[in-house]
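Deliverable D2.4 — example input (structure tokens):
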């Protein structure tokens, strides 16, 4: 009985996550035989949970920090870290997580792969930073569109897919920093994409 319950839970979890990906254009099978991708990360028109624009989100968070700690510049520090986390946390996490799924290096991604014939764009469209206040916590979540095209011909999209509400958080609740939580979402995104490619791009 316990085994049946466990199988049912695992199946439900798998189905739930599968519903969070929706292919948009082309086919995953078009990626067969591609061994390298130049990565491009795009955050244009990014929306943050409960805010119409990223600018409104930053204004709100900065004002709250300045009001609580006047004269300490915490608002500007938050803004700097919010943008800095992209290159310092999110993008390295995505690259590391994706590449380690291919232990023999049969497929790899990177921001400076000049030999790659194809580009993979990771366009983030929505972020929920989550929170952790000790007694209560919520993981970060993100929506992103993955777009693959010929590097020499950006208009020729061979595959694109949307991932919805990909979760990100630390083990055992040790994720008090929003940048860390969001970076784990990028790690999860890369993991699921790599698994999809390994399974279907053949």
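Example output (designed residues):
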């Amino acid at each position: 009985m316990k085994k049946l319950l466990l199988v049912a839970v695992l199946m439900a979890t798998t189905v739930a996550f599968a519903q969070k990906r929706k292919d948009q254009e082309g086919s995953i099978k078009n990626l067969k035989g591609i061994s390298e991708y130049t990565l491009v990360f795009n955050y244009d028109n990014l929306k943050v949970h409960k805010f119409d624009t990223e600018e409104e989100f930053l204004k709100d968070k900065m004002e709250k920090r300045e009001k609580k700690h006047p004269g300490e510049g915490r608002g500007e520090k938050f803004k700097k870290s919010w943008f800095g986390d992209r290159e310092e946390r999110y993008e390295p996490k995505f690259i590391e997580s994706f590449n380690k799924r291919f232990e023999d290096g049969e497929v790899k991604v990177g921001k400076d792969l000049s030999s790659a014939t194809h580009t993979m764009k990771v366009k983030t469209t929505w972020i929920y930073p989550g929170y952790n206040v000790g007694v209560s916590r919520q993981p970060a979540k993100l929506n992103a569109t993955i777009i693959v095209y010929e590097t020499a011909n950006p208009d020729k999209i061979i595959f694109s897919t949307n991932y919805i509400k990909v979760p990100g958080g630390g083990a055992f609740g040790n994720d008090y920093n929003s940048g860390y939580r969001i970076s784990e979402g990028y790690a999860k995104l890369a993991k699921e994409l790599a698994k999809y490619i390994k399974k279907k791009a053949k």
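The chain has four helices and nine strands.
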